[in-house]
Design goal:
Layout lengths: L1 E4 L2 H10 L7 E6 L2 H12 L3 E6 L8 H10 L5 E7 L1 E2 L4 E2 L2 H11 L3 E5 L11 H4 L3 E5 L10 E6 L1 H7 L11 H8 L10 H17 L1 H21 L15 E4 L6 H12 L4 E2 L9 E4 L6 H17 L9 H12 L1
Parallel strand pairs: 2-3, 2-4, 4-7, 7-8
Antiparallel strand pairs: 1-9, 5-6, 8-9, 10-12, 11-12
């Protein structure tokens, strides 16, 4: 495990450049802003990128990965890069199945963006044998941004020995070496390290199973509330992320909803990114979030919708739907 002063993007850059060489063939899953980012990052470092794409709002199809991997009889594919929880759309990709196909290939590494899944959904890195996992401090770990985490398997460390992409600040061997001595190769954000210690104590007290159940409950309550308000959900139920829920309103503008929520209730809803800007809004329920926070957000959303003249809902229906989920779990 290596921790550096970086965002999740920095952690992912480290997770890619330490184990590959220019010209290596990589498969990159692209079904949102962050999958696209890893394809751009890989191309910037001279990797031969082959995208496996799905429409934004839909999960990646593991079978497309299987076909490419099975067809690679000469073992040219060196890595498969996947975003577990696609924050831009609220989709949770089927990492377990994709990882199984990568394992069947035998040669390729699997490199995972777990920025909004680690600490929110069960991700058994060791038992699944995932090679590289990158995450950040500001999501499931509940503290400000600035710490990037990278977990590396023995197989990936073997690949490190022959990888030739340039690296200096993100040379993970330096972090591994100094971590063994309880230190850091560069100036660490001491305040965030202390904050992380506190957050980890909180997480240990709550227990992993309880944390995962809480995120599932918050996701279910949010989605049931949105359905009760007759607003379309952007991601399907079977691929919904426990970190964030994306909503695609039709008869009322998402940017107007975001504006009223911020102005009148001091609640920030994330907007859409790239071509989804102005088309969706996103409700985060990741990390330090409780049932009360969701009820407050849904209540404020109902009031905002009424102010904007939205009439396709029964007043109180969203709150009632969320409360039912909480009562049942």
């Amino acid at each position: 495990h290596c921790a550096s002063s970086a965002s999740g993007t920095g952690a992912m850059e480290a997770g890619i450049i330490n184990f590959l060489s220019a010209g290596d063939r990589v498969l990159v899953g692209c079904n949102g802003k962050f999958g696209d980012r890893w394809a751009q990052l890989s191309a910037a470092f001279g990797l031969e990128v082959e995208k496996i794409s799905a429409e934004w709002g839909q999960p990646l199809d593991p079978e497309q990965f299987r076909e490419k991997l099975v067809g690679d009889t000469e073992k040219q594919i060196k890595a498969v890069i996947v975003t577990h929880s696609e924050t831009s759309t609220g989709v949770l990709n089927d990492l377990e199945t994709i990882n199984r196909y990568v394992k069947d290939h035998g040669e390729a590494l699997i490199i995972v963006d777990a920025v909004t899944s680690l600490g929110a959904v069960n991700l058994p890195i060791d038992s699944w044998g995932i090679d590289v996992v990158a995450s950040g401090s500001q999501k499931g770990y509940m503290i400000p941004p600035g710490l990037g985490f990278v977990c590396v398997s023995p197989k990936a460390w073997e690949a490190y020995k022959t990888a030739k992409l340039p690296r200096f600040y993100f040379d993970l061997a330096a972090y591994r070496k100094t971590a063994a001595k309880n230190t850091n190769p560069f100036t660490p954000p001491v305040n965030l390290v202390i904050a992380l210690q506190t957050a980890l104590r909180m997480m240990k007290a709550e227990g992993l199973d309880s944390i995962f159940a809480r995120h599932q409950r918050l996701m279910n309550a949010t989605r049931e509330a949105i359905k009760a308000l007759s607003l379309p959900l952007f991601a399907p139920d079977q691929a919904a992320s426990p970190a964030i829920t994306a909503v695609a309103p039709v008869s009322v503008e998402s940017e107007q909803i975001r504006s009223v929520m911020k102005k009148h209730f001091d609640i920030i809803l994330a907007g859409g990114q790239d071509h989804l800007k102005g088309k969706i809004f996103r409700i985060g329920h990741l990390g330090f979030v409780s049932d009360r926070d969701i009820l407050a957000a849904i209540g404020a959303l109902e009031a905002s919708l009424r102010e904007l003249g939205y009439e396709s809902m029964t007043p109180g229906a969203g709150i009632a739907a969320a409360a039912r989920v909480f009562a049942q779990s």
